[in-house]
Amino acid sequence: MKKYALFLGCTVPIRAQHYELSARNVAKELSIEFADMPKASCCGFPIKAVDAETALLIAARNISIASEMNLDVVTLCNSCTAMLSDAQKQMENDHFHKKFKTLGFSYPHEITVKHFVRVLYEDVGLDVIKKKVTKPLDSLKVIAHYGCHYMRPSYIYGFDNPEVPHTFDELVTLTGAQSVDYYDKKMCCGGSVLGIDEKLAVTMANHKLHFAKGNGADALISICPFCTVMYEDNQRKAEELFETQYGIPVLYYPQLLGLSFGLDKNAVGLRFNRVRPNELLEKIGGGA
Amino acid sequence: MIDLKKADPNFKYEIIKHEGGEGLLKCFGCSDCAASCPVRYFDERYNPRKIIRLTLLGMKNEVLSSPFLWLCAHCHACTERCPQGILVAELINAIKNYAVEQGYCPEGYKTQLDLLKKMGRLYEVEDFDLKKRQKLGLPPIDKTIPEVAKIVDYTGIAKVVKK
Questions:
Q1: Is the minimum CB–CB distance between A161 and chain B shorter than 8 Å?
Q2: Could you read off the pLDDT of A228-244 as tens digits, one per residue?
Q3: B contacts of A187 (beta carbons < 8 Å)
Q4: ipTM of model over 0.95
Q5: So where are chain B's domains?
Q6: What pLDDT is stored for residue A288 in this prediction?
Q7: Residues with Cβ within 8 Å of residue B31, at least 6 apart in sequence
Q8: Class level of CATH domain B4-101
Q9: Which residues of B touch A5 (CB under 8 A)?
Q10: Domain architecture of chain A: domains with CATH
Q11: Cα angle at A228 between B72 and B97, to 5 degrees?
Q12: Do B43 and A200 touch (CB under 8 A)?
């Protein structure tokens, strides 16, 4: 059993409890242990545009908490992953480390930062996960959305292929669902510009919803709470703006994986999905 | 029309001093960043190459006062493709940081900074949230993390933004 420090960030523990719940339950099935990080804060990313140094120090403080626990960090949000990974890399920078120490933080143990999905791919492994799939979701056709900060920037991650990513498709395919190969797979959800220009952000989100519908997808599979804000919470706005109907459920990957493990729909928090996945549930036979 | 008489030759040197701005002078203007940009795909008002070019020319006011600077989604599509190895998204972020210092901070970011200083997180944790978490069998979370305010005070960014 491998143990990780679970970093929740801002959005997941308050606005996406079903993501957290399903991730914890899937982890349990795979004998992954999560330790909670006391006094962990925001990752810092929301104010990087204001001041990168402040953002990095906020991220570094969270790294310090995990380092003192001597545990590698696992994250559920793409942007938290990028911000914490950047701060972890900055530990080698003397100038930064000095400031970090001045603030009273320490980095006693070298630790890594990985998104939960990357942990599933690299640390757990496809073979182990596949053995747990007792209820293959063969009847489903889904769209896998990576999100920008899952594999970019590659100079920080060195994981997957930033131009032709494939790891998440492989993980989605393991559940038995068909992962549709679609146009503009790497397209950004628009989340980062939502606060600056809502119409532009919704237009960006619409792009992928349009392909999801065109491909007859039963759901869009997300691994980032902010991408979900764009595709799920803003789906109605996209429908209004582009005068169309989508009704595409947005599931977090651990929800999909959990269903393929035979977990109950409540164990993956399916009732919290805002676009009701009723048809999807019918297709897979009621969800255990 | 660009009037070079209004150019500030020191502008580019100010940017390269900022975290992430280091690569600026390597740009030879190939436009790979703009061609890769998902924001520009939908909205031509945002063009990373144009922002970088104007910065190199010293068109400080044009760059800093442009609302389009803030449309960068920081997605790093450009960074992956820059033939000069410039961390383009970080460079644009450095220009944003400099714009903040010069008094151009969008209101939304001011609010986010205030929230982080006050609570250490973006959303307020209400009793309702804690009860919901408990019902789902999820562990409690801290309502506030005051240590974040200490970092904000240390770097002095809140004062810069209020200026």
A1: no
A2: 999 999 999 999 999 99
A3: 38
A4: yes
A5: 4-101, 107-158
A6: 45
A7: B49
A8: mainly alpha
A9: none
A10: 2-116 (1.20.1050.140), 126-283 (3.40.50.11810)
A11: 25
A12: yes
